[in-house]
Amino acid sequence: MFAIPSFGTIFYLIAGGVVAGILASAASFASLASYPLLLSVGVPPVLANVTNDGALIWGSLGSILGSLRELHGYWRQVLYYAFFTVIGSAIGCWLLLAFPSSIFEKVVPFFILIAGSLVLVSGKHHPNPQRQHTVWEQVFYTICLVLVGIYAGYFGAASGIVVLVLLTYLTEEKFIVVNALKNAVGAFTNLAALLIYAFTSHILWWDAIPMAIGMFIGGYLGPIVVRHVSAKLMRWIIAILAVTQALIYFKQAYF
Question: Transmembrane stretches, by residue range (predicted)?
Answer without folding.
Answer: 12-35, 78-97, 103-122, 143-170, 176-197, 204-221, 233-250
